[in-house]
Amino acid sequence: MKRLLGSVLPVLLTTLALAGCGSGGEAKGGGGGEANLKLPPLNEHVGNVSGTTLLWIGLVICLFGLGFGLVTYSKLQKLPVHEAMHEVSELIYETCKTYLKQQAKFLMLLWAFIAAVIVVYFLFLEHMGAKVLIILLFSLIGMAGSFGVAWYGIRVNTFANSRTAHASLRGSPWETFDIPMRSGMSIGMVLISVELTLMLFIMLVLPGDLAGPCFIGFAIGESLGAACLRIAGGIFTKIADVGADLMKIAFHIKEDDARNPGVIADCTGDNAGDSVGPSADGFETYGVTGVALITFVLGAVPDQTEQVQLLVWIFVVRVVMLIASFVSYLINNAVAKARYGAVAEMDFEKPLSSLVWITSVISILLTVLTTWWMLSSMGDGTMWWKLSIIISCGTLAGALIPELVKAFTSTNSRHVREVVTSAREGGASLDILSGLVAGNFSGFWLGIIIVALMGASFLVSGTGSGLGDMGSMSEVKWAVFAFGLVAFGFLGMGAVTIAVDSYGPVTDNAQSVYELSTIEEIPNVSDDIEKHYGFAPRWDVAKHILEAQDGAGNTFKATAKPVLIGTAVVGATTMIFSIIMMLTEGLSNAAEVNKLGLTHAPFLLGLIAGGAVIYWFSGASMQAVTTGAYRAVEFIKNNMQLDENATKASTDDSKKVVQICTEYAQKGMLNIFLGVFFAALGFAFVDPYFFIGYLISIAIFGLYQAIFMANAGGAWDNAKKIVEVDLDAKGTELHDASVVGDTVGDPFKDTSSVALNPVIKFTTLFGLLAVELAVSIGAGLLTYILAAMFVLIACYFVYRSFYGMRIDSTKGPDEFDTVAKEAGTGL
User: Where does the record place the site Determinant of potassium independence (predicted)?
Assistant: First the structure.
């Protein structure tokens, strides 16, 4: 009760404070904001066809994409699977389902904070009356969308994991590869199709004056859902992973030993972190980028005809890229099957890489053709090829970035092998240092690639007459639009990006399902499999295939992370510009524009504040993992049975570890979310330009922090895989050192780094509302009192994210002195 009251009280205070401001304050700037975003009629002709007709056709294609995903789901469910493996995968699904139900309740609590701000802004300040209920409804729909695709991803993956494990018994690498690839495409196609269907519905069905605010509500809702599921899932999965891994060192047991009660929690975490998180994150990223571009077009493009042309074009190209992903998958699958269908050994990374490149090339070709057909008559006739090149910069980035990531995280990369070489002589210390080197180098190269591609888009946007006359500071507006289109291109092949990312948790779980089923110990199992499934199992080959495939899964889980964080940063540029447009009256107010520089103290201070929040967030999320893992290890050590009669951990013990993981994931998430929420609200009230500096800072700091942490963690993870698979050195000191490195990398790559993406987008998107609230109230004593109150609340949760999550928070000074003296350190 005390915890619930402590969580809900800030909501009540916030609502009362803001409602009081809304009723008593004098509106000074709300008129140009998202409350007044109005979609023009979309029935004007684009490419000789009505815009609404094109969008309805796109909606039908999205339904076909959804149908493909669901048909694939059905086929996967019908694949053969041994009962022992099926039981394990269903147990994993049941624990995942329990976790998701708890997260749904938790999400509704967090939604109350957002709903309070939406009600105050749209009802009290913009006087939209009953329309506020529709905006609230779409915020719930956005949140439900993130949650729904996450649940779908878990269900598909927990079908696929046991069927992949079963297929490995045949000794065929291709069959073992094909199942997680199909499950990944099912998730990718469903995710993108659902997202596009919802956004097209808003555009086609809702009145134009309501569509703009509903897009904002929808985007905030899906951003909240993604942030919660990504952060909490990342904490959950790494508590379980670290807890289970440390048992390998403590008791010298094998990977996924069935006697370890932490393994089921680890499998649940693989889905909570590596399936739920990316699915919700991808759904939100795709939607928020679209909303950012809609907001820009409606706010910066003065001509209504050009608004319609650009809006329809953006969504038609998205549909075309969905088709490109589907066609590329069919082509790549046919080629890969012909090449690998009958081989005894295969490099699992090659068909995944070829899928990404084929999709990129086809997407670029179809984008150019579609843009030429739709926009060849727009402007001076050069608009179509300029926009094509700009989007293609992003699409190319979606293929180049994974290749660069592989250079730092693949089992074949020199950096990862350097980690292994270092650990062989220097143990865990040099293992960790080498991984840090890989992460830092990756930050440089990926940053340079992103800058180069954004720079190219900027140059194209300014070529000749640029992209048209947009009034004051036209070249600045089109440069920002170009950056938004680069983010758009990043996500163009979103279905394939999600597919290769979802491949990872299936392959990881498949190896665990194999071990947890203890299938080799079942009496007469070989004869039974041959009788019922028509083949003789090849046990050693199966285990080798699963381990090698898991290494490829680790690599491609790593490749999707910089793509998503890159879109967050590039897309945030467009959203931040929307705030700037509002504050500067469309860049026409020179005095206000001058405040966007280092000579304006609030802007400079905001740049400094953003970095502080990124470093706090990284520490807070890892603190939650550290404390939760400590509790999990403590429980596992006390309850793991290693006597000769023990074969499996008890289900009750496994569920207890899941409970520990869930508890600390939610505790950590609550502190983090409330810290981020109130910091955004408080900084917006301090000064609008302080807040803009803050948003720019968290995007830049967050980009490099995320890349560094993700790729360092990926290098440590696959270094361990080399030791286990290529060197067959399990149980050795080298293996112990690589496990230590991997446990350090776990929260790096799967908690802190990946969660920075939704944090950046949520803060930026919520900032649209927060700044409008502050500007509407106006500068004055009341605004500064509110700013101080919100910042103090944020600092309280920052404080609590460590001091309320400490491992030994019950120990007093005397006890610590005793421990120190016994250790001979004399603290």
Answer: 557
